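lol forgot to send this yesterday, sorry. struct tokens for the thing we talked abt
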């Protein structure tokens, strides 16, 4: 499949225990399909992430979020698993872990949705409970 231009909507909620932070953005991205995997690529527009290139590698049971730019890292979301990753910031590297509570994938070439609910940990300390919902359509 050649790259298709798609409209991408990103909604996230981060609950730190002290506050809930909601983010929402809409961008134009590109969708590829190769070897049984969908790749959704777009550029971040949220404050602090501007210009960061994001790729979602979407499989039925695994979603990998790859960021390159002001911040970087590769987060692997696998149902009912805890995975670790290094988050690159302008201030240095931060080792983190994610524990996936819910992973929902419903994707086609014309439209799709990825739903993630996960907990973020830094050195065994719960940092936040997060929800990420990414949808796209032609």
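and heres what i got for the seq, position by position
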């Amino acid at each position: 499949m050649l790259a298709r231009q798609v409209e991408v909507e990103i909604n996230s909620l981060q609950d730190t225990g002290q506050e809930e932070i909601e983010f929402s953005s809409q961008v134009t991205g590109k969708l590829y399909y190769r070897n049984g995997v969908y790749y959704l690529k777009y550029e971040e527009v949220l404050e602090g992430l501007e210009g960061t290139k994001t790729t979602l590698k979407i499989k039925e049971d695994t979603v990998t979020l790859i960021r390159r730019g002001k911040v970087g890292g590769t987060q692997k979301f696998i149902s009912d698993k805890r995975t670790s990753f290094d988050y690159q910031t302008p201030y240095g590297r931060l080792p983190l872990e994610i524990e996936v509570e819910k992973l929902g994938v419903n994707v086609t070439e014309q439209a799709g949705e990825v739903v993630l609910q996960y907990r973020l940990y830094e050195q065994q300390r719960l940092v936040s409970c997060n929800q990420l919902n990414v949808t796209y359509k032609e």
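The mean pLDDT is 93. anyway ping me if u want another try
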